[in-house]
Amino acid sequence: MRGWIRRLLTKRRIRDSEDRKTREVRVQEELPNEKLVLLVQFTMVAMVILSAIEIVNIIVLKVWNAEIFATITGLTGTITGVIIGKKA
Q: What local confidence, expressed as pLDDT, does residue 42 receive?
């Protein structure tokens, strides 16, 4: 899972060579910080666990828990913001 997250957060820049005869295209990759990768992995795991808790809550207690759903929504926004912010 860590490798998939690392590839997702890797910033790629395409640069043409300055020599017009060869016209090489170079891809420069900027790898993310390892702490950022671990943070996104922890957030994804927490979101899966909270989703499972919400599903069990709905099945067993037949009640929608708004606090758990708000936390899931917040974590989703955090993950999306990190991915979009890192790619830009």
A: 94
